[in-house]
Specification:
two-stranded antiparallel ribbon, twelve-stranded antiparallel β-sheet, 2 helices, single chain, mainly beta
Length: 233
Protein backbone atom coordinates (compact mmCIF):
# COMPACT_ATOMS: atom_id res chain seq x y z
CA UNK A 1 0.00 0.00 0.00
CA UNK A 2 1.05 3.58 -0.62
CA UNK A 3 1.14 4.30 3.11
CA UNK A 4 4.32 2.20 3.37
CA UNK A 5 5.94 4.36 0.69
CA UNK A 6 5.08 7.43 2.72
CA UNK A 7 6.60 5.95 5.87
CA UNK A 8 9.76 5.04 3.96
CA UNK A 9 9.98 8.56 2.55
CA UNK A 10 9.68 10.16 5.97
CA UNK A 11 12.31 7.89 7.51
CA UNK A 12 14.84 8.62 4.75
CA UNK A 13 14.14 12.36 4.77
CA UNK A 14 14.88 12.48 8.49
CA UNK A 15 17.93 10.24 8.32
CA UNK A 16 19.43 12.26 5.50
CA UNK A 17 20.25 15.12 7.79
CA UNK A 18 21.62 12.89 10.55
CA UNK A 19 23.73 10.06 9.17
CA UNK A 20 26.11 9.29 6.32
CA UNK A 21 25.76 6.45 3.87
CA UNK A 22 28.43 3.84 4.59
CA UNK A 23 29.66 1.61 1.74
CA UNK A 24 32.83 -0.28 0.86
CA UNK A 25 33.66 1.89 -2.15
CA UNK A 26 33.70 5.70 -2.21
CA UNK A 27 32.31 5.60 -5.73
CA UNK A 28 29.24 3.77 -4.39
CA UNK A 29 28.46 6.11 -1.50
CA UNK A 30 25.81 7.90 -3.53
CA UNK A 31 22.34 7.95 -2.08
CA UNK A 32 18.86 8.28 -3.54
CA UNK A 33 16.21 10.77 -2.54
CA UNK A 34 13.23 9.24 -0.79
CA UNK A 35 13.59 5.61 -1.93
CA UNK A 36 10.26 3.83 -1.75
CA UNK A 37 8.61 7.00 -3.02
CA UNK A 38 10.29 7.34 -6.39
CA UNK A 39 7.51 9.35 -7.99
CA UNK A 40 7.74 12.09 -5.41
CA UNK A 41 8.00 15.65 -6.72
CA UNK A 42 9.85 18.70 -5.45
CA UNK A 43 10.06 22.42 -6.10
CA UNK A 44 12.62 25.03 -5.09
CA UNK A 45 13.09 28.77 -4.80
CA UNK A 46 15.96 31.11 -4.06
CA UNK A 47 16.93 34.74 -3.73
CA UNK A 48 19.88 36.29 -5.55
CA UNK A 49 21.94 34.15 -7.95
CA UNK A 50 25.38 35.14 -9.26
CA UNK A 51 27.24 33.82 -12.30
CA UNK A 52 30.84 35.00 -12.51
CA UNK A 53 33.81 34.58 -14.79
CA UNK A 54 37.01 33.66 -12.96
CA UNK A 55 38.24 37.01 -11.72
CA UNK A 56 35.92 38.82 -14.10
CA UNK A 57 32.43 40.07 -14.94
CA UNK A 58 29.26 38.91 -13.22
CA UNK A 59 25.66 38.18 -14.09
CA UNK A 60 23.16 38.56 -11.26
CA UNK A 61 19.52 37.50 -11.04
CA UNK A 62 17.16 38.71 -8.33
CA UNK A 63 15.46 35.38 -7.65
CA UNK A 64 14.70 31.96 -9.07
CA UNK A 65 12.40 28.96 -9.08
CA UNK A 66 13.60 25.37 -9.47
CA UNK A 67 10.96 23.46 -11.39
CA UNK A 68 11.09 19.67 -11.67
CA UNK A 69 10.36 18.49 -15.22
CA UNK A 70 11.05 14.76 -14.90
CA UNK A 71 12.16 12.41 -12.15
CA UNK A 72 13.27 8.91 -13.15
CA UNK A 73 11.31 5.98 -11.80
CA UNK A 74 13.45 3.42 -9.99
CA UNK A 75 12.35 0.61 -12.32
CA UNK A 76 13.86 2.48 -15.27
CA UNK A 77 17.15 2.84 -13.41
CA UNK A 78 17.19 -0.84 -12.53
CA UNK A 79 16.71 -1.77 -16.18
CA UNK A 80 19.62 0.50 -17.11
CA UNK A 81 21.75 -1.02 -14.37
CA UNK A 82 22.53 2.38 -12.91
CA UNK A 83 20.29 2.70 -9.86
CA UNK A 84 23.31 2.68 -7.50
CA UNK A 85 25.80 4.08 -10.00
CA UNK A 86 27.45 7.45 -9.69
CA UNK A 87 25.91 8.54 -13.01
CA UNK A 88 22.33 7.77 -11.98
CA UNK A 89 20.03 10.70 -12.77
CA UNK A 90 17.82 11.94 -9.97
CA UNK A 91 15.80 14.40 -12.02
CA UNK A 92 15.63 16.89 -14.84
CA UNK A 93 14.71 20.44 -13.83
CA UNK A 94 14.54 24.03 -15.05
CA UNK A 95 16.14 26.85 -13.09
CA UNK A 96 13.90 29.83 -13.85
CA UNK A 97 15.80 33.04 -13.02
CA UNK A 98 14.31 36.54 -13.13
CA UNK A 99 15.62 40.09 -12.85
CA UNK A 100 18.89 39.18 -14.58
CA UNK A 101 21.45 41.84 -15.49
CA UNK A 102 25.16 42.15 -16.32
CA UNK A 103 26.97 45.48 -15.80
CA UNK A 104 23.51 47.01 -15.36
CA UNK A 105 22.28 45.73 -18.74
CA UNK A 106 19.36 43.30 -19.11
CA UNK A 107 20.40 39.76 -20.06
CA UNK A 108 18.25 36.76 -20.95
CA UNK A 109 18.47 33.24 -22.32
CA UNK A 110 18.24 33.23 -26.11
CA UNK A 111 14.65 33.69 -27.25
CA UNK A 112 13.24 34.31 -23.77
CA UNK A 113 11.81 37.47 -22.19
CA UNK A 114 14.12 40.31 -21.15
CA UNK A 115 15.84 39.65 -17.79
CA UNK A 116 14.64 36.01 -17.77
CA UNK A 117 17.10 33.10 -17.89
CA UNK A 118 15.88 29.51 -18.20
CA UNK A 119 18.60 26.97 -17.45
CA UNK A 120 17.99 23.25 -18.04
CA UNK A 121 19.59 21.05 -15.39
CA UNK A 122 20.40 17.37 -15.06
CA UNK A 123 20.58 16.54 -11.36
CA UNK A 124 22.63 13.65 -9.99
CA UNK A 125 23.22 12.31 -6.50
CA UNK A 126 26.40 13.36 -4.71
CA UNK A 127 28.03 12.55 -1.39
CA UNK A 128 30.47 15.38 -0.78
CA UNK A 129 32.08 13.89 2.32
CA UNK A 130 30.98 12.12 5.48
CA UNK A 131 27.60 13.49 6.60
CA UNK A 132 27.58 16.06 3.79
CA UNK A 133 25.18 15.38 0.94
CA UNK A 134 24.40 17.27 -2.20
CA UNK A 135 23.55 17.37 -5.88
CA UNK A 136 25.90 17.18 -8.81
CA UNK A 137 24.21 19.50 -11.30
CA UNK A 138 25.06 19.30 -14.98
CA UNK A 139 24.07 22.38 -16.94
CA UNK A 140 22.87 21.80 -20.47
CA UNK A 141 24.48 24.40 -22.80
CA UNK A 142 22.93 27.74 -21.84
CA UNK A 143 22.92 30.45 -24.51
CA UNK A 144 22.51 33.99 -23.18
CA UNK A 145 22.25 37.35 -24.91
CA UNK A 146 22.62 40.98 -23.90
CA UNK A 147 20.36 42.52 -26.56
CA UNK A 148 21.45 46.13 -26.05
CA UNK A 149 25.06 45.36 -27.05
CA UNK A 150 24.37 42.22 -29.11
CA UNK A 151 26.68 40.11 -26.94
CA UNK A 152 26.27 36.32 -26.84
CA UNK A 153 27.39 34.26 -23.83
CA UNK A 154 27.41 30.47 -23.41
CA UNK A 155 27.60 28.58 -20.13
CA UNK A 156 28.10 24.82 -19.84
CA UNK A 157 29.66 22.28 -17.50
CA UNK A 158 28.75 21.19 -13.98
CA UNK A 159 28.79 22.27 -10.35
CA UNK A 160 27.92 20.94 -6.90
CA UNK A 161 25.25 22.04 -4.45
CA UNK A 162 25.28 21.28 -0.72
CA UNK A 163 21.94 20.14 0.73
CA UNK A 164 21.08 20.23 4.41
CA UNK A 165 17.96 18.96 6.17
CA UNK A 166 15.85 21.35 8.22
CA UNK A 167 13.63 20.67 11.21
CA UNK A 168 10.59 20.66 8.92
CA UNK A 169 9.95 17.33 7.22
CA UNK A 170 10.60 17.39 3.48
CA UNK A 171 12.30 20.80 3.55
CA UNK A 172 15.98 21.16 2.64
CA UNK A 173 18.31 24.14 2.27
CA UNK A 174 20.52 24.27 -0.83
CA UNK A 175 23.74 26.29 -1.02
CA UNK A 176 26.13 26.79 -3.94
CA UNK A 177 29.23 28.85 -3.18
CA UNK A 178 31.85 30.43 -5.42
CA UNK A 179 34.49 33.16 -5.19
CA UNK A 180 35.70 35.07 -8.25
CA UNK A 181 34.56 32.30 -10.57
CA UNK A 182 35.92 29.36 -8.54
CA UNK A 183 33.44 26.95 -6.93
CA UNK A 184 33.66 26.34 -3.20
CA UNK A 185 32.97 22.60 -3.64
CA UNK A 186 34.61 21.05 -6.67
CA UNK A 187 33.87 17.32 -6.53
CA UNK A 188 31.78 14.53 -5.06
CA UNK A 189 33.38 11.78 -3.01
CA UNK A 190 34.97 9.28 -5.38
CA UNK A 191 34.46 11.62 -8.35
CA UNK A 192 36.51 14.02 -10.44
CA UNK A 193 36.58 17.82 -10.32
CA UNK A 194 33.50 19.53 -11.76
CA UNK A 195 33.83 22.84 -13.59
CA UNK A 196 31.45 25.45 -14.93
CA UNK A 197 32.64 27.11 -18.14
CA UNK A 198 31.82 30.35 -19.93
CA UNK A 199 32.35 31.56 -23.50
CA UNK A 200 31.87 35.23 -24.41
CA UNK A 201 31.12 36.11 -28.02
CA UNK A 202 33.29 33.40 -29.57
CA UNK A 203 36.23 33.63 -27.16
CA UNK A 204 37.67 30.33 -25.79
CA UNK A 205 35.85 28.80 -22.83
CA UNK A 206 37.04 30.02 -19.43
CA UNK A 207 36.29 28.90 -15.87
CA UNK A 208 33.22 30.39 -14.24
CA UNK A 209 31.30 30.04 -10.99
CA UNK A 210 27.73 30.11 -9.74
CA UNK A 211 26.44 31.11 -6.32
CA UNK A 212 23.02 30.52 -4.76
CA UNK A 213 22.56 30.90 -1.02
CA UNK A 214 19.92 29.26 1.17
CA UNK A 215 17.56 28.14 -1.55
CA UNK A 216 14.61 26.16 -0.22
CA UNK A 217 13.96 22.71 -1.71
CA UNK A 218 10.52 21.39 -0.83
CA UNK A 219 9.45 17.78 -1.37
CA UNK A 220 5.73 17.05 -1.54
CA UNK A 221 5.41 14.01 0.71
CA UNK A 222 1.70 13.51 0.13
CA UNK A 223 1.07 13.71 -3.65
CA UNK A 224 3.05 12.01 -6.44
CA UNK A 225 3.74 13.47 -9.89
CA UNK A 226 0.58 11.84 -11.26
CA UNK A 227 -1.45 13.90 -8.82
CA UNK A 228 -2.46 10.89 -6.74
CA UNK A 229 -2.59 11.04 -2.96
CA UNK A 230 -0.07 8.66 -1.39
CA UNK A 231 -2.32 7.75 1.51
CA UNK A 232 -4.94 6.42 -0.90
CA UNK A 233 -2.74 3.69 -2.41
Amino acid sequence: MRIYRLVGALVIATALGLIAVATASAAETLWKWLPGSVEETFTGKSGKITLQLKGGATITCANSLILLTFGLDSSELVEEGSIAGKDAILALAILHMEGCTSAGLPINSLGDALKVILAHLEIHNCMIKKEHFGWLIKLLPLHLEIPSVKLLVIFEGSFIALLEATKQMGHFVLNINQKEGVQGITKCEGGTAETLLDEDDGEPFAQAGIEMKEALILFDLTIDNAGETMMEK
